[in-house]
């Protein structure tokens, strides 16, 4: 049995309507409906307030396989990537002198000791 089904079963056993549960929890009616129909994974806050309204610990009702404390989705669209590349081309085209100067300065900073010793060796005729 899924988590939303368990919430619904417990709510019905206490003779609460979805609207009454929403009023007791401070959540919207639509949120309660979506949790009970298993459309969404409820947040920890929602689990806590629903559990308090139903006078039970709902965190024990959810099986470990259903709980996903962290979930990360990354969706890249090709059109977004093409736009990014076009914007990058425009940036480089319009500011290539500044970008070249920054790269040159970074090169000198990272290779300062080698450049310094080469200049000193050349000055001393080595």
UniProtKB/TrEMBL annotation:
<dbReference type="InterPro" id="IPR050807">
    <property type="entry name" value="TransReg_Diox_bact_type"/>
</dbReference>
<keyword id="KW-0472">Membrane</keyword>
<protein>
    <recommendedName>
        <fullName>HTH cro/C1-type domain-containing protein</fullName>
    </recommendedName>
</protein>
<dbReference type="Pfam" id="PF01381">
    <property type="entry name" value="HTH_3"/>
</dbReference>
<keyword id="KW-1133">Transmembrane helix</keyword>
<dbReference type="InterPro" id="IPR010982">
    <property type="entry name" value="Lambda_DNA-bd_dom_sf"/>
</dbReference>
<dbReference type="InterPro" id="IPR001387">
    <property type="entry name" value="Cro/C1-type_HTH"/>
</dbReference>
<keyword id="KW-0812">Transmembrane</keyword>
<feature type="domain" description="HTH cro/C1-type">
    <location>
        <begin position="7"/>
        <end position="61"/>
    </location>
</feature>
<feature type="transmembrane region" description="Helical">
    <location>
        <begin position="95"/>
        <end position="112"/>
    </location>
</feature>
<keyword id="KW-0238">DNA-binding</keyword>
């Amino acid at each position: 049995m899924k988590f939303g089904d368990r919430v619904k079963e417990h709510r019905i056993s206490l003779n609460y309507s979805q609207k009454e549960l929403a009023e007791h929890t401070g959540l919207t009616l639509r949120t309660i409906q979506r949790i009970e129909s298993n459309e969404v994974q409820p947040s920890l806050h929602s689990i806590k307030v629903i559990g308090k309204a139903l006078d039970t610990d709902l965190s024990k009702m959810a099986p470990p396989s259903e709980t996903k404390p962290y979930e990360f989705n990354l969706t890249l669209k090709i059109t977004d990537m093409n736009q990014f590349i076009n914007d990058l081309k425009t940036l480089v085209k319009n500011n290539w002198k500044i970008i070249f100067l920054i790269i040159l300065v970074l090169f000198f900073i990272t290779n300062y000791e080698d450049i310094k010793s080469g200049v000193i060796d050349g000055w001393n005729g080595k």
